[in-house]
Structure to design on (389 residues):
């Protein structure tokens, strides 16, 4: 586990961002000198929200689980509502600018009563809209996870294997608000698909083995002809990565750490490789090393790579990988966050071609933070791989 003081830069950043978001929303939605009661209530709501949000995030990782679950549910739901309200308020700025321009041009008389009415009406529409979208997002995130079928054809995939079924789970995020009962349902759904192979592409947990071991234990119930494989995501490194790697091995999950294995036999086989998370180099003995992962492979065999972050695709496409399976992005989780994800990762969700290589980026099976998904539904991905005709 990381020492508490290593999180100080993140906490400082989070406090600054949280404070800025809350002040912006207060200024746009609640500051109303002509409505003293509304302004007073609004100021308290946004002030308390700005203070409790970072404290709640800390509490969700450190309080006893029953209390942490309640704290996380409240704080992260509020965080999601604030994010949605921020984007909606930001989208209203052109309207405000147009009204200000009309007033400055004397096209519309400067009537204080009308101006206040329009401002309050706009704030009300945003408030009601944000609550509605947040409610939809919660219903989406908490609904049973759907199976998303994806078909890919690879040049060197052995024809003798026919249609090879890989079930991908990613960004499960077992933690304060996602538990073993939920995971058990996901595992049952995966087994119904009768996969040839299960690939878990990181961010499985948000907490230690001591806290979450009993919840993650349901992974031992996964059934796949060629086994269950795992690569680390960035959140494993916040949760005691070495202890989790040992626990997964105990549960019968094969962890691929900058290495590859052969799936199948003889000519009817392909290579499956996996690398550590892109950002794990700061942890001794960890760090993505694709060269090492591919060392000794047979270049005549098809190669499928598991890598948590899709940005690994740039290097993988130059190394003979036929298909990369990734997660990390959550598909943006709450629209329009995906636009910012694309700036950082280059890919958001779905199937992309990078040179001669195919990349599939999962929207994720669980969620992180706000129990909401808007425009990026959770998925259990059923990837059916065939030989390219």
């Amino acid at each position: 586990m990381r020492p508490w003081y290593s999180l100080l830069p993140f906490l400082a950043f989070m406090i600054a961002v949280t404070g800025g978001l809350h002040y912006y929303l207060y200024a746009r939605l609640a500051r109303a000198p002509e409505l003293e009661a509304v302004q007073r209530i609004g100021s308290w709501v946004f002030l308390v929200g700005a203070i409790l949000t970072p404290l709640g995030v800390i509490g969700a990782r450190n309080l006893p689980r029953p209390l942490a679950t309640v704290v996380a549910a409240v704080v992260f739901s509020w965080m999601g509502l604030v994010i949605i309200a921020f984007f909606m308020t930001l989208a209203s700025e052109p309207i405000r600018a147009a009204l200000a321009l009309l007033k400055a041009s004397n096209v519309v008389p400067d009537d204080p009563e009308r101006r206040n009415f329009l401002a309050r009406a706009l704030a009300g529409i945003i408030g009601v809209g944000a609550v509605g979208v947040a409610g939809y997002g919660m219903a989406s995130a908490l609904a049973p996870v759907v199976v998303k079928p994806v078909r890919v054809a690879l040049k060197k995939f052995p024809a003798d294997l026919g249609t090879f079924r890989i079930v991908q789970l990613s960004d499960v995020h077992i933690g304060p608000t996602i538990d073993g009962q939920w995971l058990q349902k996901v595992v049952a759904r995966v087994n119904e698909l009768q996969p040839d192979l299960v690939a878990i592409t990181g961010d499985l947990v948000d907490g230690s083995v001591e806290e979450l071991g009993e919840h993650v234990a349901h992974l031992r119930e996964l059934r796949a002809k060629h086994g269950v494989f795992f690569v680390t995501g960035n959140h494993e490194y916040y949760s005691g990565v070495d202890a989790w790697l040992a626990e997964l091995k105990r549960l019968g999950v094969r962890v691929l750490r900058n290495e590859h294995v052969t799936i199948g036999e003889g000519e009817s086989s392909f290579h499956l490789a996996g690398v550590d998370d892109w950002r794990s180099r700061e942890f001794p003995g960890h760090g993505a090393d694709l060269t090492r992962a591919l060392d000794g492979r047979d270049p005549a065999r098809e190669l499928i790579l598991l890598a948590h972050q899709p940005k690994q695709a740039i290097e993988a496409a130059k190394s003979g990988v036929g298909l990369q399976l990734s997660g990390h992005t959550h598909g943006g989780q709450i629209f329009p966050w995906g636009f910012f994800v694309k700036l950082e990762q280059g890919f958001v969700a779905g199937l992309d071609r990078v040179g001669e290589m195919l990349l599939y980026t999962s929207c994720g099976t669980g969620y992180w933070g706000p129990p909401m998904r808007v425009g990026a539904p959770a998925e259990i991905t059923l990837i059916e791989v065939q030989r390219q005709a």
Residues 112-142 form the longest helix (31 residues). The CA atoms of residues 103 and 110 lie 6 Å apart. The chain has eleven helices and twelve strands.
